[in-house]
UniProtKB/TrEMBL annotation:
Organism: Psilocybe cubensis
PROSITE patterns: RRM, ZF_C3H1
Protein's name in the database: Pre-mRNA-splicing factor CWC2
SUPFAM superfamilies in the cross-refs: RNA-binding domain, RBD
Residue stretches of biased makeup (Basic and acidic residues): 287-311
Coiled coil regions, renumbered to chain: none
ZnF (C3H1-type) residues: 96-118
GO molecular function, one term: zinc ion binding
Pfam families: RRM_1, Torus
Amino acid sequence: MPTTAPTEAEILAPTPIPQAPKPPKKLKPARKQVKPGDVVKEETVQTGKEYNIWYNKWAGGDREDSYSNKTKSQTRCSIKRDSGLTRANTTGMKYICLFFSRGCCPYGWECEYRHTLPDAKDDLPDSSKDCFARDKFADYRDDMGGVGSFNRQNRTLYVGRIKETGNGQETEEVVARHFREWGTIERIRVLQYRSVAFVTYVSEFHAQFAKEAMACQSLDNDEILNVRWATEDPNPVQKVAEKRRLEEMGQEAIKAKMDPRIVDAMRSVRALEEGETLPPDEEYDSDDQRQELEHQVDDDQPDSKRRRIEDVPEQPIQANGLLSADTLEGLKYFAEIRKRHGGAPAPQQRAPPPAAKPTGLGLADYGSDED
């Protein structure tokens, strides 16, 4: 085909220079969020007649705590401004600084914990602890506060004392704008006219961080939030979806730690036992691999069902099972004989063989098949 000649503008145009990819932005050393002594905790004056040494307070006095009080927090974390490198990045510590999440860490880059959002893909050393290295408990507190439970993966936060503005859609946008700073949000549900919202994160670590970061904070209307763990969602659809999500996470975790060749070989063994036809990509790579996997399967079975490869004669595999038609007929024949003559007695009750046996007798005259 004839080609058109380049125009004068194309000839004189400068050749674009390929741009090198920008290197990833490096974190700067973490800054000190506050100075020592800036944050002073105001103790509430307690009144009462009896002093409870267990709770360290007067009985019948003030019942305010960190979740029910209405005192606004003096500091707030800013991920964009406060995140940075600390000593934990060199020592290998994976846990997050609790005071950093609340915006009041005075150590900055000298802190022994990380000053960043927890990584959803990072595996913590101990699953019984949260992202701040605090021990979880078997059950939740009565007020659904505290660290939480290790028996349930909770990704939903209860947010109370919200001042609603306009309709529920506007309130949901305000909640999303303030809570998305702490991680990826899966869904938000606002209970209109009840000043309550439920925020569900994709990662449980982000929910743990957001719970501490937004405790006693304000949104757009100078309210003081009450942030706690949410109870289990009674919606059956959400229950099924959460169960399916946990199953998929478990399967992915197991698959990531297993050799894919072993997974394919075990799938092939199961297909052969069920009499199914194997696709070409699921066959064994070699006879040695097949025998090794079958030995492993037999070792996991009880003694009554254990079967070794070398003890079983080579039989052609039929479409309906592992044994050939001749082997099945032979097993049926011996089973019929044992059924007809009562079978073999137990080893501890077996009678000794007779001293003299007459000749010309059939199999029915013996005490057992072994005789």
